[in-house]
Amino acid sequence: MNQNTVCIVGLGYVGLPFACLCAKKGFEVRGLDLDSEKVALINNGRSPIKDSYVEENLVAGKIMVTTNAKTALNLTNIVIVCVPTPAIDGKPDLGFVEAACKEIAPFVSKKELIIIESTIYPGTVEEIVLPILENGSGLKAGKDFFLGHCPERIDPGNKEFTIEKIPRVLACLSVEGTEKARKFYASIIDAKINVLKSVKSAEAVKVVENTFRDVNIAFVNELAKSFDKMGIDLAEVIKGASTKPFGYMPFYPGPGVGGHCIAQDPYYLIARAEKAGFEHQFLKLARSINESMPSYVVLLAEEVLLKMNLNPKKSKVTVLGLSYKPNVGDTRKSPALKIISLLKLKGYRTTIFDPWVKETSTVNSLDKALDKADLIVLVTNHTVFLKKLSPIFLKSKGVKAVIDARNVLDKNGIKKQGICYKGIGR
User: Fold this and answer.
1) Full DSSP string of 43-107
2) How far, in Å, CA of 238 to CA of 251, rounded?
3) N or C: which end of the chain has fewer CB within 10 A?
């Protein structure tokens, strides 16, 4: 058994950066993925995803990727499962985790360390993963092999907190397994490795982290709707509240919650609690509020156009931004997608531009996107937009109205140019 060989199962937005990190730290890295096109790209040193860390660290030959589980797990002593865990219509789907475990189970070796990094609800490792691996391998967890959970932590596009600089949390089903996992993560992560007492606690960490954000974003989104009715500038209120040095943490309203985590992780906590006989009414309400925001943005757009005596169906509406966060090309669960869908459903003439997602944009430049635009809807606050969308520039393009769904543009300057401005809660 090669003590420096690790296999990453699932090479997406979590698994591939992790594989690159392990290779960078000197491990022999194998990869297992069912997508043959993705496998071919990675083996040739080309990234199948838009990720700056991967693009900088993926080197042909450093990661051997295959669709064959037997080949991938041959002579490995560490297996990291990073497959997706989506929530379909609010229902957690652990199908990928179950399938991955069934695939690797026959090839589990004695003393092998298996860590689930996929986002899961508390109890998944012991109730679902453990039986699959034991039945498929004929081995016993804690005795023959080691099993645990280390919730993934990754922030695409973050130059300060790259994958190797983010503290991690882990727990295994046995003391020996926990120590093996701690040593492994300590060898690749340049930050603190926090060991918890139970696997269920470790499983709860990720869903709690992102549910915390979802709830607080829902709070300010509801404030935005309220303050729009009362004529209060929420941005000013948050600015004032942020001067308190204790007991307050600023969150900001927006067009909705996107990304693979915040928009779905609360459903994992909600579902597991229901299984245990508890209903998370508060979390359900937060999800409902955040899910409503794309519709609210479209409502504001309609109100602004009608206020200016412009026919919504004959007006040029330009949507700026497709990705769910600034300066990345990741559109997973982006609120922009729902906003665009709703605009089209209403029959609006919609132009779309995102410099990070050019393949889905309907024009190839910001200039073309803004030319004769009656209304622009800023959904993603890319740096290039913040630099170029000055009040004078908007005026020169003939823009008549702006929906600033991120509250990042010069409100007063835009209004001085005679352009109608509407933010979220301002």
Assistant:
1) HTT--SS--HHHHHH--TTTEEEES-HHHHHTT-SEEEE-----EETTEE--HHHHHHHHHHGGG
2) 8
3) N
Average pLDDT per block of 10 residues along the chain, 426 residues long: 81 96 95 96 93 91 95 94 93 96 96 97 97 97 97 89 95 97 96 97 96 97 97 96 96 94 93 96 97 98 93 92 94 96 94 96 96 96 96 96 97 97 96
193 forms beta bridges with 168
309 within 8 A of 352, measured Cβ to Cβ:
no
Of 172, 197, 222, the residue at which a domain comes to its end is 197
CB 66 within 8 A of CB 27: no
Active site residue 261: yes
Domain of residue 110: give its range: 5-197
Domains held by the chain: number = 2
CATH of the domain at 235: 3.40.50.720
Which of 145, 166, 197 represents a domain boundary (last residue)?
197
Q: What does 342-397 look like in DSSP terms, one character per residue?
A: HHHHTT-EEEEE-TT-TTT-SSSSHHHHHTT-SEEEE-S--HHHHHH--HHHHHHT
What tokens appear for 226 in the block?
């309220």
Q: Quote the CA–CA distance of 291 and 63 in Å, as a whole number.
A: 39
Question: In 181-269, where do the E strands start and end?
Answer: 193-195
CB 318 within 8 A of CB 405: no
> What is the C-alpha radius of gyration for the chain, rounded to an integer number of angstroms?
24
Same domain, 261 and 405: yes
* Residue 402 bridge partners (DSSP): 376, 421
Question: In this structure, what token pair is assigned to residue 111?
Answer: 């003393």
C-alpha–C-alpha distance, residues 208 and 283, integer Å: 11
Paired sense of beta strands 63-66 and 28-32, if any: parallel
